[in-house]
Amino acid sequence: MSNLSRRNFLRGMGGVVVIGGLAACGNSNNNASSSASTDAAATSETVEKVDVASLDEKGAELARAEIRNAIGLLFDRTYICVDIAQADQIPANTFVCQGVQEPDGSDFAKNAGEGDGKGYYDASQEALTSNFEKAVAILKKYYEYDETNGVFTNFPAMTYLYNTNEGHKAIGEYLQSALAAVGIQMSMENQEWATFLNTRKAGDFSIARNGWIMDYTDPICMLDMWTTGSGNNDAQFGKGDHANIAAYDLDLTDLGYDVQVEGGTWADTYDVLIDTINKESDQKKRFKLMHRAEDMIMATGALTPLYYYTNPYLLNKDVEGFYVTPLGFSHFEKCTVGGKGDSISVTYGSEPDTLDPALNSAVDGATTLVHTFEGLSRWELQDDGSYKIGPACAEKMVKGKENPDGTVTYTYTLRDGLTWSDGQALTAGDFEFAWKRAASEELGADYGEMFNVIVGYPSDLAVKAVDDKTLEVTTTNLIAYWDELMAFPVFYPTRQDIVSDEGWATDPETYICNGPYSISGWKHNSVITLTKRDDYWDAANISMKEIKWFLSDDSNTNLANWEAGDWHFIDEIPTNEMARVKKDYADQYVVAPYAGTYYVCWNVNENILPA
């Protein structure tokens, strides 16, 4: 709410997503017969040099994709997980994270690539040598290589952008050293979180740290972010110069669709593919389409997965009732400290870029929002430790009614007694206003595209307040993850008279919300204080009266405060302290599941070809 892969060009296959006429479905770098062999990598004589100056626009884009894929093969993901991150992460060989189920119950990530569990490349230690040799053989096609010293001499210099954090810095330094070993120079630049997010979004970088935690447990959550108009499309697919590059093919005729594009732009192909997925109700077909979407983005080499996230944290032994969902949202509302519910002190990020539910795109901001706002549904912890969606502002979860044209209409009845934190009644009209605002092109919300499953998106959204308690919404088709969307912050209600003040979400006096807590104090860049609302509809089940969210992304400071007993929860542990922490606080160190991928993101408009 927060990428680099390795994939060479593969032999063509009928009825698959294709980049530049070369298949991007069902073949990984390591196994494709058309990939450079280990023997070929051993001698420069077997490498056919590419005349970069003679490449047309399409050829140049395919070359950049091949280069990005090759660089991704240089990284030792096991070393990153075990020696740097040290939080039991799993080396990644797909972009869509592990743990997402197919309709038959199998794992989407295990079925990616050739479906042999190796994804798009072999991330094992055993494959390090062959991966390195393949990478060098590919790069030799484009760059001058000093055989004596084993380095490339004319690769353009790059800058790696990362946000202030010792762990991110350590990973960046490893990537830097891995590239320097073959003569590729990459400098490091760090920015504070809010600035970093905006820099990535604007495309003012060449290569950057990135990560994505799923917003709901469906692969489309990690795939639709790469459409041309998505606010989360940091790689800049279909933007800037890339908007006009006609290098992509798309053939879906084998699945019964009248879609066949040769030499199309990103908008002509990937956007069309995602739109097709969003309109498909047949789940088996839909998942086949989503595999093709991942194939297509992985073929570009613009996303380099490094590992699948885990969620390590330190929780004071006196705290009970804490839980964190696999989507990364920490919950403190049911906590007690030493059996008391007076106050808990936590930290899970620095000053948020925004706490407007329509505009937030970070996990730390969302963690605050699940305490201050609430949608029609919410995630609920079960006695067996699992999670399920249950009703929140809605009296109950409802099934949609299918219409003759294939659209589906949902009709929700709001609970009695719902109020805003200023005492005003919450109505269905607040939901209608909030959704139309969040979906609008005028607001430009990163998550605005999540409303594209609703008829009339973006300018005439089919959501209507029938009366103060009844909300009606019509989707384009049956949406498998619809109930989960209703629990996501961008679908929370907001009030028109409140958000008309642009600064409303930065001041406790104007921050009017509908969740179990209100913001009673906000010392910027220091601490936000949340106070329980006694008029919240489910106040009887809220045990913690006050949550103090300390705003810090300095992991050393965070650990010091936790060890001193001043803070009860931290989720950033210094890399150089991880081994000691695991040993000294074995009973308070927790690694929770986390549905997401840590990756390196390339700006596709960055020209990495030799001059």
List keywords for this structure.
about 600 residues; alpha+beta; 11-stranded mixed beta sheet; 15 helices; 27 strands; about 20% strand; disordered N terminus
**DSSP summary: helix tally:** 15
What best-fitting shape do the alpha-carbon axes yield?
A: globular
Main β-sheet: number of strands, strand sense, barrel status?
11 strands, mixed
Radius of gyration: 25 Å
Low-pLDDT segments: 1-44
Strand residues, percent: 15-25%
User: Number of DSSP strands?
Assistant: 27
Q: What is the helix content? A: 10-25%
Structural class: alpha+beta
Mean pLDDT over all positions: 91
The separation of the N and C termini measures 37 Å
Description:
- The protein is of the alpha+beta class.
- Helices cover 25% and strands 21% of the residues.
- The strands form seven sheets. Strands 3, 6, 7, 8, 11, 16, 23, 24, 25, 26 and 27 form an eleven-stranded mixed β-sheet that branches.
- A hairpin with a 3-residue loop joins strand 23 and strand 24 (527-532).
- Helix 2 packs antiparallel against helix 4 (128-140) and helix 8 packs antiparallel against helix 9.
- The longest helix is centred in the middle third of the chain and has 18 residues, at 283-300.
- It is globular and about 75 Å long.
- The two termini are 37 Å apart.
- The model is unreliable at 1-44 (pLDDT under 50).
